Amino acid sequence: MIVLACVLAIFGLFGSIRPDLIWVISESWKSNDATEPSDLYIISTRFGGIVCFLSGIGVIIALAVA
Q: What is the pTM of this model?
């Protein structure tokens, strides 16, 4: 469980720091223009990354206390 929480925290941190790279990996092939992600995509990916990071850290803390 701790490994899963660490992976969640790492991917969350990565998603909040580099949403443009996540767009290149997962979404750029779907676009005809494919130059850059929209502002909404960057904001929502950063928000999701922060939520995943905080969730992972919360699970790590909960497991450490228990």
A: 0.86
Rounded CA separation 55/42 (Å): 20
Q: What whole-number distance in Å separates Cα of residue 42 and Cα of residue 49? A: 10
DSSP 1-28: -HHHHHHHHHHHHHHHH-HHHHHHHHTG
CA angle 13, 30, 55 (to 5 degrees): 20
Give residues with Cβ within 8 angstroms of 63, minimum separation 6.
1, 2, 5
| pLDDT, tens only, 23-62 | 999 888 887 777 888 899 999 999 999 999 999 999 999 9
Query: Stretch 13-23: mean pLDDT, rounded?
Result: 94
Taken in order 54, 57, 61, 62, is the CA torsion positive or negative?
positive
